[in-house]
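ugh finaly. both done.
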Amino acid sequence: MEWNLQRVKVGILRTLLGLTPLALMLGLTLATYWLVEKNSPSILPSIAPVRLHVPDYTITNGALSTLNELGETKNRVIGKQLIHYEDDATIDIKAPRMRSFQPPKVPVSVQADIGHLDGDISILDLSGNAEILRPAQPALENQKAAPQMIALSDYFQVLINDDLINTRYPLILEQGFSILTSNEGGSFNNVTQTMTLFGKVKGRIEREQQGQR
C-alpha cells in the first residue's frame, strides 16, 4: 500500500515537472504582453477638433478682391476692420464698401455701417445706412448718358457672383432730379446698371433738364 502511494507521488511529481516549461512559457508570454501594453501609447478614437466661432485674425484697413476671367479686378471689398472666423471662414466688416467694375461703364459702389461676408466670398450682407451709388454715366456707343443714381435702405444683400444687389426693406431711389420710394425694396442689376422697385412705388419722375448730359 505504501509502495503504491509512493508511485502516485512520483507520478504527480513527474507530471508537474513536465508542465514546468509550459508554465514558464505562459508566464513569459503574459509578462511580455503586460510590458507591451504598459509601454504602448494609448490609442483613442479619432475625433476632429471642435472649431469655435471666434476670430483667428483681424485686418485693419483691409481689402479683398475678386477677379474676372481675364484676371482683372471685378469686385473689391474694403473695410476699416475685417474680422475672420476660423470655424466657417466668414468675415465681419466694419464700415464696409464694395466697388464693382464693368468697363466701360462707371464703377458702382455699395456701402453700409457693418457688413458680413460668407465663407465662399459670394454673399455680402450690408446693414445700417446702406447705400448704392452709381456715378453719372457718360454716353456710350450703345447707351445714352445717365445721371447719378443713389439708392438708400437699411439693408442690402450683394450677390457677388450674380452681379445683383437686393433688399426687401423700404428703399429710396434718387436719379437726377427724380425721386422714388418703395415699401418692399428693389433689385439693382450691376451688369445693366438698372434698378427694379418692388411693392408700392411713389414719388416723382423729372425729365432730363435742358443742358444736362
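ok and the 2nd:
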Amino acid sequence: MEYTTPSLDVKVDPAGRVIDVDSLYAAFARLHDSRHARGRRYALVTILVYIVLAKLAGQDRLYGISQWVRYRRVALAEALHLVEPRARCVNTYRSILGQVIDIEEFEQVVREFFAAQPHAGQSLVIVLDGKTLRGTIPAGEQHGRHLLAAYLPAEGWVLFQVEVARKENEITAAPRVLKCLDLREKVVTGDAMFAQRDLSQQIGDAGGDYVWTVKDNQAALRQDIEVLFQPEATVKGFSPTRPYGSDQRETPRT
C-alpha cells in the first residue's frame, strides 16, 4: 500500500482516501509543481485531471475546457472529493500549461503510465508521424514547433517523440526516435519520405521490419517496383509472365 499527502483542495477525511496507485491521477500527482506555495489556490493534479476530462469530451481550446468544467463543477467536485465546487478561469489553465508544467517531465510521466498498462507495447505496427503543434507558428512565419513521434495506432499512444529542429527535417530526426525504441519483431511504417536506405538499414539492424510507401520522391525505386510486380507484355498466343511473388505452380490442365 502507498500513501500520499492529499492535494490542497481535497477534503481531508479522517478515515483516509483511497486512490488507485496505477491511475492517471496518481501519475499526475508525481509531477513537480513549480508554483510558490503561497500562490497555489488549486492543486496541479486537479487542474490536469480537469483538462484531460474536457479533452476526452471533445474540448480542444482553453476557453472550451474552462466552460466545460464550469458547467460540471459540482459533479466534478463530488467525484474528486474537493472542498468546494469552484471553477477555474481560463487564465489558470493557460498558466499551468504554459508556465508550470515541465514538458519533458510530463511526457515521461504519461509515457510511463501507458507503458505500465496491461499488454502495452505488444502491438506489431509502429507509425512514424510528424505534426506541427497548434498555436506555435508566429505571425508572419510559416514554421512552428514540429514534433516527430513513434505512434502505436492499435493502442492509441505515443512511444517516443522528439522535436524537429528548424534546420533539419523528419528524415534526419527519425533515427533519433528509432534508436530509443525496441524494434524487435516490430513493423515500422510511415510516409513516403521515410523510404530511405539508411533508415531502413537501421530498422533491420535493430531486428525490425519496415513498410514504406514509395512515390515520385524515389522515382528510380518506384520504377523498379513497378517493373518487378507488373507482368510483361506478351505476344498473342503465349501465356503472360506471372508477377513476382505469385504462385509459380502450374495449374493442372483438364
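summary for the 2nd one i guess: The chain has two domains: 24-112, 119-228.
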